[in-house]
Design goal:
This protein is mainly alpha-helical. The protein has 14 helices and no strands. The protein has 2 domains: about 1-40; about 70-280, MetI-like fold (Orthogonal Bundle). Helices cover about 75% and strands about 0% of the residues.
């Protein structure tokens, strides 16, 4: 019996080892583009096209200096930081309230409203850019960060509302009833009681909106065409491509500057991201 158990244990270990090696190989191919960009950011343009190797012959740190100062990526970084922070704040509050109403209240036409919201998922972003730009232009907001922030927050995916609605629907009704007996109104109940209970969803929505705001390209490109001073990082990276010449090493360095904050954020917040999605789906 003991020999049989040992045989089973050894076979499971071999199976685990084989599976781990296979996934390791797939993981390498998955992250290779990221590794290549990191490597290219420290190479010359000539060396970049000299092969697919990841180890530079000489570390060219000047690429980052040229990208940060020479190409104004430093300014674009702070523009993107401001837009991301305030758009996340706006999105969490508005989608949280919307999700709270849908998840906790019953009212005539609720299913129709949810159906209309879901149908907006199938509208391509490009179809809404011209109306958004025209609206910002009429409000005299198309030339500053305020307009770009509102436009970025306005492109909120409906999935945020559904995540909040699913999570709010699982919270016991007794909490609201006790708060109402104490004289609390809708805003107070939402801000002081309900919203703090949805920290996993808040974290999930915040991460998704950060990714959306930080990486959005088409909308900022259109709005900042005539206003280079309010460009975001994604548009700034595109600026390395000229009509007759592309600064590949500078573009790689700018790309690293762009993606590293997102990677660090997700590594620290991935636990809350998973909890928020699981909680909303169960609801």
């Amino acid at each position: 019996m003991s020999k049989y158990l040992n045989f089973i244990a050894e076979r499971n270990q071999i199976r685990y080892l084989v599976i781990s090696v296979i996934f390791l190989i797939f993981s390498f191919f998955w992250i290779y583009p990221l590794l290549w960009v990191l490597s290219a950011s420290l190479k010359t343009d000539f060396e970049i096209w000299g092969g697919l190797g990841l180890i530079p012959e000489k570390l060219i740190w000047e690429n980052f200096e040229r990208a940060w100062f020479g190409a104004n990526m430093g300014r674009y970084f702070f523009n993107t930081l401001i837009i991301t922070f305030f758009s996340v704040t706006i999105v969490v509050i508005t989608t949280g309230m919307f999700g709270y109403v849908i998840g906790r209240y019953s009212f005539p036409g609720k299913k129709i409203l949810v159906g209309i919201l879901i149908s907006t998922i199938f509208i391509p972003q490009g179809y809404t850019i011209i109306p958004i730009f025209d609206l910002l232009n009429n409000l005299n907001l198309s030339k500053n960060l305020i307009g770009l922030t509102l436009a970025t927050a306005g492109h909120t995916p409906v999935i945020y509302i559904l995540l909040f609605a699913g999570y709010f629907s699982r919270i016991p009704v007794e909490l609201e009833e006790a708060a109402k007996m104490d004289g609390a109104g809708f805003i107070r109940i939402f801000v002081t009681i309900m919203l703090p209970l949805t920290k996993p969803v808040v974290a999930t929505v915040s991460i998704l909106q950060v990714l959306h705001a930080w990486n959005d390209f088409l909308l900022p490109l259109v709005i900042t065409l005539a206003n280079p001073g309010i460009r975001t990082l994604s548009v700034g990276v595109y600026a390395f491509k000229g009509e007759y010449f592309v600064d590949w090493s500078g573009m790689a360095a700018a790309s690293v500057i762009t993606i590293l904050p997102i990677i660090v954020l997700f590594l620290f917040m991935q636990k809350y991201f998973v909890e928020g999605v699981q909680g909303a789906v169960k609801g």
